[in-house]
Specification:
The complex is a heterodimer. By secondary structure, chain A is mainly alpha-helical. Chain A has helices at residues 13-30, 36-60, 90-108, 117-136, 140-161, 166-199, 206-209, 216-233, 242-249, 252-260, 265-277, 279-305, 310-331, 334-365, 381-394, 401-416, 418-443, 449-452, 460-478, 481-509, 517-525, and strands spanning 69-77, 82-88. Chain A has a domain at 278-502. Chain A has a two-stranded antiparallel ribbon with strand order 1-2. In chain A, a hairpin with a 4-residue loop joins strand 1 and strand 2 (82-88). By secondary structure, chain B is mainly α. Chain B has two domains: 8-573, no CATH class; 580-652, no CATH class. In chain B, 72% of the residues lie in helices and 4% in strands. Chain B contains 27 helices and five strands. Chain B has helices spanning 8-12, 24-38, 48-73, 102-125, 132-151, 155-173, 180-211, 216-222, 228-245, 254-257, 263-272, 277-284, 286-290, 293-314, 320-340, 344-371, 389-403, 409-422, 427-430, 438-465, 480-507, 520-523, 527-553, 555-564, 566-573, 578-627, 632-652, and strands at 16-18, 78-89, 92-101, 432-433, 436-437. In chain B, strand 4 and strand 5 form a beta hairpin. In chain B, helix 17 (389-403) packs parallel to helix 21 (480-507). The chains are: A mainly alpha, B mainly alpha. Chains A and B meet through helix 6, helix 12, helix 14, helix 15 and helix 16 of A and strand 2, helix 6, helix 7 and helix 26 of B.
Chain lengths: 534, 653
């Protein structure tokens, strides 16, 4: 019995998916300079290819099993037991679809960028490689490789195409996240080394790490190293201050990807590596995450409320929304966890859309100060409608996607700890307060003809960007079950990692280590260390 | 309507009918809204069509409701349909399903019936507005949400409608968004309502956690399985939601501001339908509330206070819509008094009659406002009974009803509430206030409020329609699309109680407490009841005559009274200064905390630490730069140090 089951071995879909953006990058090098629209079309074509592959995955995915699917295994650094082991479950599947979808949208919306066009497009495609790799990797070291790979293009996106304080923001982003992930690397090396101690070979494979016998102290400190890296990425209060700066300075496309996908990496990491490898530590410290999540909900909302810069406001709203996701994760029950993952997708849709919305305003007026707007609805009625829908999705109005996620999270959190849930519910009120107050100040009131009278409504390209996002808001709001039932097996499995381990840790407490089911399984699994089934 | 089930026992022989057609009721207005929304860009000369489109879809929904309702008359206990499984996660699952039973049937008819009339009225009222299509789109969208609220089979379906009507209310209050106060009022309404909704959500969590289902029938049947303290907790949390939506103390502050919206909106949303949602929800969960005696007590007290406080404010308002707004708050207070006494069906009875006469009053006020060229100050009205004959007559009838004058519809419903409060056998009877049972004290305040109601409504009638015209522009009567709905509503305002009151109470009796049924037939022998009936009749007559005397015969009395107690007058016209209180106690501290969080915690403390670390690293980097001297020996030295350090690391860990 291996703790991890890989199905459909020999499928090349996942490696194909991960390297597909390279195809676009290669083509971009052939595009002559100044041929901006050709460059955009090439990159768009490449991202559509990746999107198509992810749709094939969605089609072929088997929602009846909790096993990792589309398994792929290629050696990398054999001596250290590192390999490119790929496989996805329902959780990674939907995050992959989100990634390829948003990347396509961002590339489609790229004409507002004129400077160093090919480099900009290549950065986005490289970023896509990093994100997709992170979502498919089941091997610690390759996970880390892709994780760090995301940093580089993001650094350039902020640092080259960013606003006035771009260098400060880019550096802050990189240093903050690199600091966290270095500790994670150390912990990973330590796990591989422990595997060598216990099983006679180095390994970075997730399934192998799950079999390690770790003392409580080891488990807790290693988990802390992982969790710190993830918490920074989420970002969890009080490690969030890189986010507003990065968002404000990043170009629209960068912000969309940052909010839409990159902020999901931390929680994804917790679900993928944190829970299976350190189940006891996760359970014991769940209240810390839950507490910080709730603090983030309230704190992010309050700080968002007093912002004068539209983009900063939306950035702080992400802190609040991700607080909800963290709370759902910490609840560690089916409603909380599924709600949390669904809310990650929802946040990817609605906050990405909100950053596009800020982009629409910024492209026209080149300012993000709220006070420079007002009465915009008079001249941009279509925009007003679109903006309203995403505002409502963001504050979780029923029948929009935001409600389902938020409700499930709160329901799960209530079972976990009703006091935390009671505080978290205040986010429902505060969310309405800051989002509607932003909408009111930008859209309502008398219009200043001299300043804003000539703003033009959405053009066709912008309309095409918003249309699929609008559809998703309502489709997920009305039929969330299509996603939820894909998430269910993976979520159940994640929770099962924790349920028996509670018993195991109770056994350890009594000083009775040998008879715990975990240890028995460990010995058993030695015969099939890779644990791959065909 | 003579083969209605007359006792609850008949209803309990559940005959459930599956009928897809029930979805037509909310879907028709939704289609209307989508159609109007999609054609927003069309040219201005086709704008007139929008009102008719909306009215037709609304009327269609009324017809559909009648068809489904006829199944109930023919003996079905409920008509239901499940469209699809909305969410299902682990043990939690919620269906996208609608049910019409007696209670929701009555509400549906009121919502679509009165709603259609208000749509028709709005065609005339909004005649010259440039944004008519948008207005009617929102109005239809509101109807859709309200119908989901009423017909939802479970708490979550109701919650969709609950928040949906809040959204439409927000959009319609701020309909004339170019004026910032309107936009502010819309936002205030939404946010205050959301405070209630937060409570509602927590109540939903408790119910699901305890009962594993959010279906109303399951909750009603299984409440007894919950421990009493959780029943109370769930009941009070859900009631917080009702307090927000139905504008009770302490969350009523949004409703008067909501009058910033067009008058048909005030009539439809902020008088006849949406604001009664709280009453409806509590009635839906009557078994939960009957098992929560302390919560019922709280509801009684809050209802009574709201009824009384709002009535005192209404006394001194000069804006005709503000008078009606506070009157609405006050009447909603009455409804909660009934709920608090466990007389749920009496509460719904008042919801129905109030929908008739208050919609009529608001639309009458709207007719006056249009007739006087968008003037709302009653001091600039007067003598309008001649130029605006129909408006006057219907307003007078509706005033008759709300004032509780004998045998108007308001008389019956209000009287049944006062009686249920007086004779409440629940916990209010056991509490002693200065030698009297609390139930009698509450009844006393209810009676006092009835007097105030008769007084301020007559005041508004006299100031508007009697005496000399004090405005500048010539007043004119409104078009037929506006007067016809007034006439249609004035009729049930007068005669609904005497004709159908008994039937209605019996029809929704299963949601009441058996001993609280105040059917007149049962009480025919009860002397106390007759005595109290006479008292409240007398109080209403007294209120009307006093107001008529003061404002018609001796107008100087009013101003002298106001001058004799300037502080009290200012306190009342400043609406008990509750808005100011909230600004000082909640809004300003919250802004302060937020600013501290941003400027001190975020920028100074956290970022300061981070940037400080950055500076420290940079300083070390400077050292490191010096270390990169290019000398191989230096590098070797570092390598050795590094190896020793990592060895130590492995050994120590």
């Amino acid at each position: 019995m291996s703790p991890i089951e890989l199905q459909m071995q020999g499928s090349y879909l996942l490696p194909l998916l991960v390297v597909s953006p390279f195809f676009g990058i290669a083509l971009l090098t052939l595009v002559p300079e100044k041929r901006d629209s050709l460059a955009r079309n090439v990159s768009l074509f490449s991202s559509l290819l990746s999107f198509a592959i992810s749709l094939v995955l969605l089609k072929q995915y088997d929602a009846t099993t909790s096993a990792f699917q589309f398994g792929f295994d290629a050696p990398w650094l054999d001596t250290f037991g590192a390999s490119f082991t790929f496989g996805i479950d329902g959780i990674s599947l939907w995050l992959i679809v989100l990634t390829t979808f948003l990347t396509t949208l961002v590339l489609f919306a790229s004409p507002s960028i004129h400077e160093k066009k090919r480099a900009y497009l290549s950065c986005l495609l490289l970023l896509e490689v990093g994100m997709l790799g992170t979502f498919v990797a089941l091997d610690g070291l390759s996970f880390y490789l892709f994780w760090e790979l995301m940093l580089v293009p993001m650094y350039f996106l902020i640092g080259i195409w960013g606003g006035s304080r771009k260098i400060y923001a880019a550096l802050k982003f990189v240093l903050y996240t690199a600091f966290g992930s270095l500790l994670m690397l150390v912990a990973m090396v330590y796990l591989a080394w422990t595997h060598n101690q216990q099983f006679g070979s180095y390994s970075f494979f997730l399934g192998d790490w799950m079999r390690l016998a770790l003392s409580d102290g080891q488990e807790l400190s290693l988990y802390a190293a992982f969790a710190l890296a993830f918490a920074i990425k989420i970002p969890l209060f009080p490690l969030h201050t890189w986010l507003p700066d990065a968002h404000v300075e990043a170009p629209t496309g960068g912000s969309v990807i940052l909010a839409g996908v990159l902020l999901k990496m931390g929680l994804y990491g917790l679900i993928r590596f944190g829970v299976p490898v350190f189940p006891n530590a996760v359970v014991e410290t769940a209240w810390v995450l839950g507490f910080l999540g709730v603090v983030g909900i309230v704190y992010g909302a309050l700080v968002a409320w007093v912002q004068t810069d539209i983009k900063k406001l939306v950035a702080y709203s992400s802190v609040s929304h991700l607080g909800f996701c963290v709370l759902g994760f910490a609840a560690m029950n089916l409603q909380g966890l599924q709600g949390s993952v669904l809310q990650m997708i929802n946040h990817g849709v609605s906050t990405a859309a909100l950053f596009f919305i800020v982009g629409v305003l910024y492209d026209r007026k080149h300012t993000r100060e709220i006070s420079n707007y007002g009465g915009v609805v008079s001249v941009m009625p279509k925009f007003a409608f679109v903006y309203l829908v995403f505002t409502l999705s963001s504050i979780g109005l029923p029948l929009t996607n935001g409600f389902v996620g938020e409700f499930l999270i709160l329901l799960g959190a209530f079972k976990f700890d009703w006091v935390l849930a009671a505080f978290a519910v205040s986010g429902v009120v505060l969310g309405a307060m800051y989002m509607l107050s932003l909408y009111r100040r930008v859209m309502f009131g008398p219009i200043d003809e001299d300043k804003n009278g000539d703003l033009s409504d959405l053009n066709l390209r912008e309309g095409i960007v918003f249309a699929p996002l609008l559809v998703l808001v309502f489709v997920i709001g009305l039929f969330p079950q299509t996603i939820l039932s894909d998430l269910e097996p993976a979520s159940k499995k994640t929770i099962e990692y924790i349920t028996p381990s509670k018993r195991a840790s109770a056994a350890v407490d009594k000083g009775d280590t040998t008879s715990s089911p975990e240890t028995l399984q460990t010995v058993d699994a030695k015969k099939n260390p890779r644990g791959l089934n065909s | 309507m003579n083969n209605l089930p007359t006792t609850s026992a008949v209803v309990e022989q559940a005959l459930e009918i599956e009928k897809m057609g029930i979805f037509a009721i909310p879907l028709l207005p939704l289609i209307g809204a989508i159609f109007l929304g999609a054609s927003l860009g069309q040219s201005k000369d086709r704008h007139w069509q929008s009102g008719w489109v909306a009215t037709i879809f609304s009327a269609g929904s009324f017809v559909a409701s009648l068809l489904i309702f006829s199944e109930l008359i023919e003996g079905a206990s409920s008509v239901r349909f499940t469209a699809w499984e909305w969410m299902s996660v682990g043990s939690f699952s919620v269906a996208f399903a609608l049910t019409m039973d007696n209670l929701s049937g009555v509400m549906t008819l009121v919502v679509t019936g009165v709603g259609s009339l208000i749509h028709l009225y709005a065609i005339g009222y909004m005649d010259h507005d440039d944004s008519r299509p948008r207005f009617f789109c929102y109005l239809n969208l509101f109807l859709f949400s309200m119908l989901l609220l009423v017909l939802g089979e479970n708490l979550l379906m109701m919650f969709i409608g609950w928040e949906g009507v809040g959204l439409c209310s927000y959009l319609l209050i701020g309909f004339w968004y170019k004026e910032m106060p309107n936009a502010n009022a819309g936002q205030k309404a939404f946010v205050v309502n959301r405070i209630g909704d937060a409570g509602l959500l927590l109540g939903i969590f408790i119910l699901f956690w305890q009962l594993g289902s959010l279906n109303f029938t399951d909750i009603q049947a299984n409440v007894g399985l919950m421990p009493p303290y959780l029943i109370e907790a769930a009941a009070i949390l859900l009631f917080i939601g009702a307090v927000g939506k139905s504008a009770q103390i302490p969350l009523f502050v949004w409703l008067p501001d909501a009058m910033a919206g067009p008058t048909p909106v005030s009539a439809l949303i902020h008088a006849a339908t949406m604001v009664t949602a709280g009453v409806y929800m509590v009635t839906r969960l009557s078994m939960l509330y009957l098992s929560a005696p302390n919560t019922l007590l709280v509801i009684s007290v809050i209802g009574t206070c709201t009824a009384f406080v709002a009535a005192t404010i209404a006394l001194v308002q000069n804006d005709i819509k503000k008078v009606l707004a506070y009157s609405t708050v006050s009447q909603l207070g009455y409804m909660f008094m009934a709920l608090g006494a466990g007389a749920f069906s009496n509460g719904i009875y008042h919801v129905v009659t109030h929908a008739f006469f208050k919609a009529c009053l608001f639309m009458g006020a709207g007719s006056v406002i249009v007739g006087c060229h968008h003037e709302q100050d009653m001091r600039k009205f007067g003598g309008l009974r001649k130029p605006m004959k129909w408006t006057f007559l219907t307003y007078a009838f509706a005033t008759y009803a709300i004032a509780g004058l004998p045998y108007g519809s308001g008389f019956f419903s209000k009287d049944s509430i006062l009686w249920s409060v007086y004779s409440n056998p629940g916990s209010a009877a056991g509490i002693d206030v200065a030698g009297m049972p609390l139930s009698h004290v509450l009844w006393g305040f209810g009676l006092l409020t009835a007097f105030l109601t008769a007084f301020y409504m007559t005041r508004s009638l006299v100031l508007t329609f009697f005496g000399e015209y004090r405005g500048h522009h010539e007043a004119h009567e409104s078009p037929w699309t506006m007067t016809l709905p007034l006439i249609i509503l004035a009729v049930p305002s007068l005669i609904f109680g005497i004709l159908f009151g008994e039937t209605l109470i019996q029809f929704i009796a299963p949601w009441g407490r058996a001993d609280m049924l105040v059917g007149h037939a049962k009480l025919a022998e009860n002397h106390t009841y007759h005595l109290l009936e006479l008292v409240s009749m007398g109080v209403a007559v007294l209120g009307v005559s006093l107001a008529a005397f003061v404002y018609l015969v001796k107008p100087q009395i009013a101003s002298q009274t106001a001058k004799s107690a300037p502080k009290l007058y200012a306190f009342l016209s400043d609406k008990w200064r509750i808005d100011e209180l909230y600004a000082a106690v909640i809004i300003r501290p919250l802004t302060g905390i937020s600013n501290i969080a941003f400027r001190i915690i975020d920028r100074l403390f956290i970022d300061g630490t981070v940037n400080g670390t950055g500076f420290f690293v940079a300083a070390n980097g400077e050292l490191a730069r010096r270390a990169h001297s290019g000398r191989i020996a230096g590098y070797m030295l570092f390598m050795v140090f590094g190896l020793i350090a990592s060895l130590l690391f492995w050994i120590l860990l």
